[in-house]
Amino acid sequence: MSGIGGDGQLTGLREAAEAETETEETASGTRLSADAVRVFRWVSDQGSCDAGTLEAALGLPERRVESAVAALTELLLLRRLPEEPCRLVTVAPDAAIAALVAPREAGLRRQLAEIDRLRGELALLAPFYTEGRRRWQGRTPLTEVTDLKTVVGMITEATMRCRHEVRTCHPGGGRSPALLEQAFVQDRDMLRRGVRMRTLYQHTARYHPPTQEYARRMIDEGAEVRTLSELFGRMVAFDAETVFIPHQDDLDAAIVIHEPSTVAYLCATFDHAWSLAEPYQPAWTESSARDEVKQAILRLLAEGMKDEMVARRLGMSLRTCRKHIAEIMEQLGAASRFQAGYLARVESSGRAAAAPGGA
Predict the structure, then answer these.
(1) Are 210 and 175 in contact (CB under 8 A)?
(2) Which of 25, 120, 155, 281 sits in a 20 to 30 Å window from 236, CA-based?
(3) pTM assigned to the model
(4) What is the largest CA-CA distance in the chain?
C-alpha cells in the first residue's frame, strides 16, 4: 500500500520542519539567524554573488534566503552594488557597528548624563528635607502657653512667617477698637505679601460699628470675611501647619497645635463653616442674616436653653438676646419662653413635614 498523500504530503512535512527550524533560530531574540550567518559567510568567501544563486549554493528555500538577506541588509552587513543591483557584497562588521551601535551608545551616554544631572539637582534638596523632618519631629504636637505676652508674641511670629493662608474664626460679638486696629496692621501686611486671609464672625458682629469699619478696610485690602449664626469655636490657623485655640480654663492662655492630623481636622472644620457662611456686609440691612439669627434663637429655645446660654452661643449681649426673644414671642403669640420653645418645635415640625420627602 502506498503512503497516504504521496509526494505532496512529504513536501508539506519538509516545509513545516524548515519553518520550525527557522523559528527556533530566531526565538533566542538575536536578529542574526543561522541562515543569515551562512549567507554572510558565503558572500564574504565569494567576494560578491548573485542573489539568485544563494538558494542553490546553500541549499536553502527561497523564503529563508530572502529573510536572511533582509536581516543582513537591515543590519548594514550586506548591500547591493549600485551598478549591479542583483549582486550582493558584504560590509565590514566594524563599519556596521560604527553606523548602528555608535549613535545608540551616544544616546545612552546622553541619558546617563541627564540622569546624573537630575540626581544631583534632587540631592541638593535632601538637606532641607532632613532638616525639616528633624524640626517637625522635634516639635511638640500640642503646647500649652499660659503667659499672655508669650501667646501674643507667638501669634505675631506666626503672622510674620505665614506665606500662604491664614484662617481666623472669631465667635462672639465685635472686638474692641484697639485690638481691631492692632490686628489691621498685621493683617494688612500679610495681605500685601500675597497671603490669603479668610475670617469668620457671627452674624451679630454686623451690629458692631468698629467691626464694620475693620471688615470694610480688610475687604478693601483683599481679605475675605463671612458671618454665620453659630461658630464652632475660636481659632487662628497659619498655613495649615499651626493652629492657636483658646485655653479652656484660662482666658490669657492658649493651646498651640502642630500635630498634622489635628491641624488638618480643624482647618476642614473651618472650611465647612466657611461654605455655610454669608459674605460680610458693612451694615446689617439684609434680611437673610437677621432671619437666620432668629431661627437660631428659636432652635435654642426649643432645646430648652436659658437666655444667657442663647446669648453666649450667638455672640450677642443678654439685652439684645432678650429683645429678639420678646419679638419672637410676640410673633408666635407665646405667653412664656417655654411656650415659645414649644411653638418653635411645632413650627419646625410643620416645616419638616411640608418639605419634599417629609412624613
Answers:
(1) yes
(2) 281
(3) 0.50
(4) 124
CB 179 within 8 A of CB 209: no
Question: How many angstroms separate the CA atoms of 175 and 265, rounded?
Answer: 26
The predicted-structure confidence for 84-127, as pLDDT tens digits, reads as follows 888 898 999 988 888 888 888 889 999 999 999 999 998 888 88
> Collapsing DSSP states into helix, strand and coil, what is residue 54?
helix
Q: In what order do the strands lie in the sheet with 87-90?
A: 49-50, 87-90, 78-80
Instruction: Tell me the pLDDT of the chain averaged across its residues.
Output: 81
Beta-bridged to residue 255, according to DSSP, are 144, 245
Strands (E), the chain: 49-50, 78-80, 87-90, 142-145, 165-170, 196-202, 224-228, 235-238, 242-246, 254-257, 278-279
| Residues 6+ positions from 55 with CB-CB distance below 8 Å | 61, 62, 65
**pLDDT tier, 29 (very low <50, low <70, confident <90, very high otherwise):** very low
Contacts of 42 (CB under 8 A, 6+ apart): 49, 54, 57, 58
Q: Which residues lie closer than 8 Å to 104 by C-beta, 6 or more apart?
A: none
Which amino acid would we find at residue 313? R
Strands 224-228 and 278-279: antiparallel
